[in-house]
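Table 4 source record.
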Amino acid sequence: MPGEAPKTVKNRVHWDVKLVDATIDGLVDSGATLLRPKDDEIGWWVMADPEGNEFCAFE
């Protein structure tokens, strides 16, 4: 996230979410940050919650 110190340790837990009744825009509107969009290299979005914990969102 802009302006924050880089990560020094990995999260203890990594969780993934499957978008069923949600969208990436909905996650962002709820406070998540898009760290890396889905592209040709990865088939999911890398997100962070408001506290900076990373998670992956899948369709």
